[in-house]
Amino acid sequence: MKPIIAIVGRPNVGKSTLFNRLVGRRKAMVDDMPGVTRDRNYAEVNRFDVPFILVDTGGFEPETSDKLLQQMREQSRFAMEEADLILFVMDARDGLTPADRDVVELLRRINKPVFHIINKVDGEKQEANAGDFYCLGVDHIHTISAEHNRGVGDLMDEVLAALPYNRDKDEDEEITRIAVVGRPNVGKSTLVNRLLGYERVVANPTAGTTRDAVDTRFTVNKKPYLLIDTAGIRRKGKTVEKVEKYSVMDALRSIERADVVLIVLNAEEGVTEQDTKIAGYAYEAGRGCIFVVNKWDTLQKDNSSIGKFTDDIRRHFKYLPFAPILFISASTGQRTGKIITEVDRVMEQYCKRVPTGELNRIFNQAVDENHAPLDGGRRVKFYYATQVGVKPPSFVIFTNRPEGIHFSYERYIMNRFREAFCFDGTPLKLIFRGRDKKDT
Fold this sequence. Notes:
Elements: E1 4-9, H1 15-23, E2 42-45, E3 52-56, H2 67-82, E4 85-91, H3 98-108, E5 114-119, H4 124-129, E6 141-143, H5 152-162, E7 176-181, H6 188-196, E8 214-220, E9 223-229, H7 240-256, E10 260-266, H8 273-284, E11 288-294, H9 305-316, E12 325-327, H10 337-350, H11 356-369, E13 382-389, E14 394-399, H12 407-421, E15 429-434
Parallel strand pairs: 1-3, 1-4, 4-5, 5-6, 7-9, 7-10, 10-11, 11-12, 14-15
Antiparallel strand pairs: 2-3, 8-9, 13-14
Helix pairs in contact: 2-7, 7-8, 11-12
């Protein structure tokens, strides 16, 4: 499971600049692509020796009457509670402020690594001004310029050394790991209890009911499973609107450790923006996905109800056309027995390997029937395909112009693989790669 790093600090101290610097790119929104579902404040970072999840926050003002700033402060507090390590950013140009002092005092009470960072130190003048911050009484202060990448490398060397990270995989590789994710109050805990057959976790109609994250091993037909239930929001007294904003981080933790993700939707409320964010993380993590529409028993239905709801799901989750959809009632048990059967079907595909000869027969047939578009006036040639991994099934396709493969053609090849090899319930990964010169 990847550790979580939170970037906190007052507004306009350069948190987002540091975020983009560590991510390695300026995150952008692209329509009709899975990335549009990502909350812009979260990113998986895999470019360092230790991978981690990075969280950017809107800004922390300890004392303010402004409603927006209050909401940003609550977001920052939650990020600090959930993170494994905190980067607290201050501004060398503004100098030390009372708000900085207040945040430092708050961080002293948090039992986790905190790095105190002075940003916008672009030269010797700002370096000299940074000396004022040592009166905070912290052990070490890091001076950086996130914009110009000054001091960031040295900072990250120390950050990575302080991160908790377990490189060992679960001791039982044969077990199927199932994560139950979704917005607060969609019925996740009730569903977990129904699957296990007893009340393992607290189920309460109040969104954000306090409880700990729960992992439970169980067996069905002598087959082992690990059920990863999301922890929800750990503090009571929050409004539903605030709770909605925080459920993404909880889903991230569970998705990271799962093979198959049950994305629980509330039939009474339909699909929401937060649902698309959570599902987007599951897709981008390459996990098997199953939509579980809960509370189906509470609706007045006709013969077209399932069809209409299915169309709505497919419209909102265009990047998950392969994900099965189940309509259930966790409280009554209606159709919940189908969930494990569907998990097994998805898991079988998730781990499937295709013989190289058969793979290339289908691949060559697909290319012959529909040639790739020209790239800059040059023909795209394909050589061969090979499977390089599972969970999800991953394929490398060797070509003379890997950068010239359009997304629509990649999707065409992927759909042909799905049809030919019964990959109708799992994500697939295609990697287009150029051949070494000695092979051409």
